[in-house]
């Protein structure tokens, strides 16, 4: 793309999804065809039109053109626009005018044609559905033969940056446009959704049930959990999400330290020869390994990998450090980031090229000890999800096909996303057996204290990543935004002053503010993370929406009447329930209410999960159950060929594929430990639902992330 | 090197310092000359000799050759060796024997010629000074024309790994060798140093005052703070050091949160175009930037850098997020690792290619606000060093030459390493001014609420790294090992059972053990990190030394007499002082004693630092003061040319250079805030010690890390 454009985008940390050079185009239709024909455009994209209108003005007056930026399919009625802007007789501008203002013809115009110098000389009207859309938009790069693809958010960022106090962007609203494109509709929420009197509507933009992927990214952006980053597949964890991670870290750290695990830090680099030691293991990771080949201007002699996981980083040292049974068990953990350069469509928290996690690596004298620990850790993971994040999970064992590359067996907790009807692997605790310790591998052994024979150690590795945060958002969030479980919320309670009208005296205003601050202070003293929102210049309604969008579990309102009654109105984020709390009993009632919110959130999610697990003993119900957004549990033979077959048969049948939910075929999720939930499997009698061979155990299958 | 050797070393995670192919050699002298002449050998290295002896045996008996591995200069007396091993008439083995056992001639032999299959058929005797040495050793790679360079530790690892219960390595001790090389001498510590009755001497190997760099790495290895890693310049932070970092994190986190700083996480990757935005800034870092150019087998279109620091990663988003004065101040921090691919000699904690730190980045409306915060943070850094690590520092401002690349001014706390007489930059808090916010850079501005003009934000960045741990080790460690200040020690108190002789009844033994456990439990209840060392099979002396080496601040001894007296003997690690503590007053006396140890450690280090700052007003005393391991403070003109000149003049003059302490010329360390320590500078009258121009302020100069 043109250097000038590249420079502008870089200044805003905007990275195009793609850039294309192609044949010159003259109309939107040929443009779109050309892009698709090139084979290099994103799988789906929309066009943006940039129209320049000239209002009728006195001959001596300066012409102020109107720039309209809209989705191609949005109808732009010049009469309605002119009326809304109070400008007469808008007409599409002549080529001369375009040349004069932008030095471009109409087929090369794009939002990027606006610059700091031209912006203040025109009126700019933008279709608001662009910014709220998850679509990728094609725009010209100052020529009709070069196209770049940008997100709506980035286009908005670019334009917003041009604003000055005197010249602001205008919205192409219902007043301005005759008919908005269907996709633009949710931007203006129906009246009945605006529950709160006086509220400024800060919509998530699209409904969770209608466009789940867009809802998800919008919630994350609007709740200030993440921001997109110039390097594709990487995201910024803003304090609002990182704080959740800190809560998880703090709880998990104290639990594993009780088990004798110690924290440490191993380097992020690993040499090729060490990385490639375990063949099965590296096969699982090598397509995604990022390689450093240069430092400064010096090419490295041997390329060095960035760890995708640390088994091969750590185990050579386990071999060195473990000399006798006295050195066992060795239990180390680290909190770090790992890199897996996925080429699939990335999604914040769920699939990212760099992500944060903890990885525990332990070595034991006996298999039994290792087995016990695998389950202890899995139980801690279950508690992170269920007790902290209020997200129900099902613990079980992975099938041979789905187990950790190079390990002996993998235990897992499996979550469920009701909106998409897909399972999601929440965290895994692996027993590696002696696969990494055997002599031809890392050769980690001790001498048996009795007979002096070599005992190769039994190893486990286990990991929990920031994916947990994404699952929590998907499970609990609603159309008002994020819903945070109290135990992990950075702010658990927000105190908002209300009813501060012009009738109040200064003393009355001060009394309300002071009470808000006082409540927050009292709550903090009893360990509640509370904050008073005393921001000036925002209405209570704006604040309500702001904190709702950010998912704060409980809002306390304080107005003149509350003060008189010595009470505060408590509003729950999870279900909107309102109830007064006497100020005198604040220190007991608020913590109790937070606990109730926490357990209610879990109970609701659990009921939903339970209701969406369908036991299937006849194959004909299998795919329909999936298509109705369930996961299924079947008596299963546990054979890999059967698993492949299930994937194939359930993928072929079904619903249209969503590119961001890549697996349309069902995978085995886990063999649940709790088999007693379903009718007993009768050996030799109960048959596998999929292939009719003898079934071994009930196994969960589902489409998954 | 030969694939076989490469494989063996890789299996042990051993990375040679260098590998050389050269002309065939036949004697140690020609070998050494050839290596030096090649120009590719390490700057200093030692040779190892591998000698094979054959004892006289009955003709029918199996020959068991003796393999002696020693430093070239160690005298190996075959008579003494034979006597020690109880073998008759050792003779150097014939070529035939060498061929038979090793398929090699004597000029190709090396420690690596031993394999699992040959090791059990020979007797192997090793010079113990190899493992304890910091030298790099040249050894053959199964041919007389190929040499690899390994550390002594790695050679030991290799040999240890060959041991079996039946066949152990033997030490070439004073009994075996007539005269050991001088460097080997400290391995056997003089009798008077063995203070503790019954102690197993675990020496640090070399004295702190004699060979400081070797002492430093030995302490770190023996105290289990770090291990060396296969990727050069990277180190493993073992729990014993990582725990100190966790203490620092926990304290610093709570302090910055009080200041309104929030934690977050930004990606480790940064694109070339963004990284290179600020020219001065990138000039300071670009020679050390590591570049990812490949993912899996796919070459990336544009190389992506690993952050050397995050200014350019974060500030494009500051531009995006900061829209109005309500968004200020923005205060973010992250705990992460950064990569600076230094080509100089690495040193654990002090100069490593990847290191852990925190980096804070804040944006403010006014310069004054930024100035205030710069000093608040510097004060926290001072407290991390002085209050937690008991390491005195001097706060001040960096000269223009030494300030942060691209910033406005840099404040610093400067530490001092008495043993080397060098200054060390401990932590820095930078005011970046508006250098990164101005329009042609990251364009970070808000509109002034009053006159709507653009105000470019004032920014700070500040960082503290794991270097702090290295400084603490250097300042407090002694010839027994590490000395940890109580506030950061993972284990503050160890309780060791003593006097458990064969005369005691089982009940008496149990009473001692139980009391030890009970003391640890009682101490933990009052917040003391205590541990009872009830390991079986180790003498009290061994345990004493073990914990002393690891630097545990306080040891409590419990024996039969202590039990009777209901008292415990408390032994301080910092000064060896012993005093009984009544068990009844444990909960008050131990915490008080730990505080005393903490403040005594600080006071001693402070007195030393103070005594080694020499005020110099006459240039002729400048270099002699440095040569006597001091730093100097001079009235200084603050001109860069003068600073360059001081470096040049003080470097030329002085002591022989140590490769691991690269700066022989003095740099300015800081202009201390506390100018009142020295006689007032009289404007126009007091002259610069170095150049004679008008002096501005007292400034610290020193050789430094």
Automatic annotation (TrEMBL), chains A, B:
Query: One Pfam match, by short name?
Result: ProRS-C_1
Annotated GO biological processes are: prolyl-tRNA aminoacylation
Q: Which residues form the Aminoacyl-transfer RNA synthetases class-II family profile domain?
A: 244-485
Q: What is its EC number?
A: 6.1.1.15
Mind listing the GO molecular function terms for this protein? aminoacyl-tRNA deacylase activity; ATP binding; proline-tRNA ligase activity
Q: Which domain of life is it from?
A: Eukaryota
Mind listing the UniProt keywords for this protein, alphabetically?
Aminoacyl-tRNA synthetase, ATP-binding, Ligase, Nucleotide-binding, Protein biosynthesis
Cellular component GO terms, alphabetically?
Answer: aminoacyl-tRNA synthetase multienzyme complex; cytoplasm
**CDD domains recorded:** ProRS_anticodon_zinc (cd00862), ProRS_core_arch_euk (cd00778)
Q: Which reaction does it catalyse?
A: tRNA(Pro) + L-proline + ATP = L-prolyl-tRNA(Pro) + AMP + diphosphate
The Swiss-Prot or TrEMBL record describes its family as follows: Belongs to the class-II aminoacyl-tRNA synthetase family.
Report the protein name in the record.
proline--tRNA ligase
Which organism does this sequence originate in? Hypholoma sublateritium (strain FD-334 SS-4)
The taxonomy runs: Eukaryota, Fungi, Dikarya, Basidiomycota, Agaricomycotina
């Amino acid at each position: 793309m043109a250097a000038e454009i590249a420079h502008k985008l870089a200044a805003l940390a905007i990275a195009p999804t793609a850039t294309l050079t192609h044949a010159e185009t003259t109309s939107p239709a040929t443009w779109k065809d050309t892009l698709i024909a090139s084979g290099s455009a994103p799988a789906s994209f929309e066009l943006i039109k940039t129209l320049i209108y000239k209002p009728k003005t006195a001959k001596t007056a300066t012409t102020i053109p109107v720039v309209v930026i809209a989705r191609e399919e949005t109808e732009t009625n010049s009469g309605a626009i002119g009326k809304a802007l109070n400008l007469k007789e808008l007409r599409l501008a002549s080529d001369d005018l375009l040349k004069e203002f932008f030095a471009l013809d109409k087929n090369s115009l794009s939002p990027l044609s606006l610059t700091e110098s031209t912006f203040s000389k025109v009126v700019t009207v933008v279709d608001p559905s662009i910014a709220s859309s998850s679509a990728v938009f094609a725009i010209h790069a100052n020529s009709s033969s070069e196209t770049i693809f940008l997100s709506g958010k980035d286009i908005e960022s670019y334009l917003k940056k041009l604003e000055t106090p005197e010249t602001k962007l205008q919205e192409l609203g219902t007043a301005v446009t005759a008919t908005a494109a269907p996709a633009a509709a949710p931007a203006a929420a129906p009246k009945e959704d605006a529950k709160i009197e006086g509220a400024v509507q800060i919509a998530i933009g699209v409904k969770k049930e209608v466009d789940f992927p867009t809802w998800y990214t919008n919630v994350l952006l609007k709740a200030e959990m993440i921001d997109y980053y110039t390097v594709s597949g990487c995201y910024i964890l803003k304090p609002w999400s990182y704080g959740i991670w800190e809560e998880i870290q703090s709880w998990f750290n104290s639990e594993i330290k009780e088990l004798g695990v110690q924290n440490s830090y191993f380097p992020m680099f690993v040499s090729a020869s060490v990385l490639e030691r375990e063949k099965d293991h590296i096969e699982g990771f090598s397509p995604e390994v990022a390689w450093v080949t240069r430092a400064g201007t010096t090419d490295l002699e041997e390329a060095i990998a960035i760890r995708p996981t640390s088994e091969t980083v750590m185990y050579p040292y386990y071999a060195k450090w473990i000399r006798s049974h006295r050195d066992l068990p060795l239990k180390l953990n680290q909190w770090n980031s790992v890199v897996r350069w996925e080429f699939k469509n990335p999604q914040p928290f769920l699939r990212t090229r760099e992500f944060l996690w903890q990885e525990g690596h332990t070595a034991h004298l006996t298999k039994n000890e290792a087995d016990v620990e695998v389950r202890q850790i899995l139980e801690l993971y279950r508690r992170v999800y269920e007790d902290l994040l209020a997200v129900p999970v099902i613990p079980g064992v992975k099938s041979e096909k789905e187990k950790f590359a190079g390990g002996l067996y993998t235990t897992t907790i499996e979550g469920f996303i009701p909106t998409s009807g897909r399972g999601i692997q929440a965290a895994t605790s692996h027993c590696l057996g002696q696969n990494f310790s055997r002599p031809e591998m890392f050769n980690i052994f001790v001498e048996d204290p009795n007979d002096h024979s070599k005992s190769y150690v039994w190893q486990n590795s286990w990991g929990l990543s920031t994916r947990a945060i994404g699952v929590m958002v998907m499970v609990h969030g609603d159309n008002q935004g994020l819903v945070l479980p109290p135990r992990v919320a950075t702010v658990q309670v927000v105190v908002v002053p209300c009813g501060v009208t012009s009738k109040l005296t200064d003393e009355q205003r001060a009394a309300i503010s002071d009470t808000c601050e006082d409540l927050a202070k009292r709550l903090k003293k009893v360990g509640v993370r509370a904050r008073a929102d005393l921001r000036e210049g925002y209405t209570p309604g704006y604040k309500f929406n702001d904190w709702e969008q950010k998912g704060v579990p409980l809002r306390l309102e304080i107005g003149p009447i509350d003060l008189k009654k010595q009470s505060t109105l408590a509003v729950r984020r999870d279900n909107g329930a309102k109830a007064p709390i006497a100020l005198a009993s604040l220190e007991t009632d608020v913590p109790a209410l937070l606990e109730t919110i926490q357990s209610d959130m879990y109970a609701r999610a659990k009921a939903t999960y339970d209701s969406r697990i369908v036991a299937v003993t006849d194959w004909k119900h299998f795919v329909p159950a999936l298509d109705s957004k369930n996961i299924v549990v079947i008596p299963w033979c546990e054979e890999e060929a059967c698993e492949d077959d299930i994937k194939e048969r359930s993928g072929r049948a079904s619903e249209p594929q969503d590119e961001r939910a890549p697996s349309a075929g069902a995978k085995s999720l886990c063999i649940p430990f709790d088999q007693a939930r379903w009718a007993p499997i009768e050996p030799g009698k109960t048959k596998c639902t999929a292939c009719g061979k003898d079934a071994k155990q009930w196994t969960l299958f589902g489409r998954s992330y």
